[in-house]
Amino acid sequence: AGAAGIGLAAATLSATGAHAQEQAGGAFAGKTAFITGGARGIGLACAEELAKGGANVVLYDIAAQPAEIPYPMATEEDLANAKATVESHGVKCLAIKGDVRDFDALQAAVAQTQSEFGSLDFLIVNAGITQPGRLGGFDEEQVRTITDINLIGSINTMQAAMPMMQEQGSGRIILMASTTGRAGSDNFPLYGATKWAMIGLAKSAALTVAPLNITVNAVCPTLVRTKLLDNEYVLNALAPGQGVTFEQFDALANQQIHPMDVGFYEPVEVGRTVAFLCGDGAQFISGEVVDIGAAANARFPA
Ligand code: NAD
Q: Which keywords fit this entry according to its UniProt record (predicted)?
């Protein structure tokens, strides 16, 4: 069965596996990644995994604290540190302070990417916030803020970057959705609704750019160790007045959510999946939803 076709391809791959790994440093050489929300967390992990493969990186992050966002965003210092971290992998990095709610600023950032690097090969639509609470209990500002950032911000990012990618006729687009975009969520209904919408956006965009061999996919992590959940506002909303720590929440995640023994897993795990979707092994993977669930999605709750 290994004489031809897929069998032979698999045998060749495994025979050259060690060599391929040594060469992995160059898999993305000459490419450019544009990552929203790249100053920390999952966005920064994606930046690092792509930079390790040789891609230059543009980090686009709000790096400021607007009053309507209820927990700490990345700071200017985080953004500067993220740039240095990316550059430590031997690539160039442009750090741009900007809000995904600002379409003009996104367009300017894409134009800057064009003049600095000449291409935009990997678009990682990652900036997002969460907003815990129960339906029926949100005020209008909470509804608008999360919708403006997670949904309209994602649309803005794609609309700003896609013309350049379409003109160059190549590229990979990845939207950072969530497991809450795959089922209902009692504690994160607004967040979940924006993530369902992002999956819809990914599928429609995949059709639009398919003739150009550009792929578009959504990635759905479950629970990742980042400031999105590791902050007092979110922990207090989930267990009001109980002083639940992130470590306790982590232990709960370990027992009740992931059948694999991972608790909150690290952002690098998401970065690796994103790098796979940007690589040669994912050429015909498009319009798909890639779940990173550590077996959570396999479970019937009994
Ligand atoms: P994070 O809060 O550490 O990172 C989010 C980044 O986005 C921050 O650097 C923040 O400054 C930036 N940002 C927020 N609003 C912005 C705006 N309006 N414009 C530009 N930048 C903005 O959280 P994270 O967990 O790394 O989140 C990254 C993405 O992953 C989000 O879309 C999130 O919904 C998604 N996600 C996270 C988890 C998780 O468990 N942490 C699970 C599934 C999906």
A: Oxidoreductase, Signal
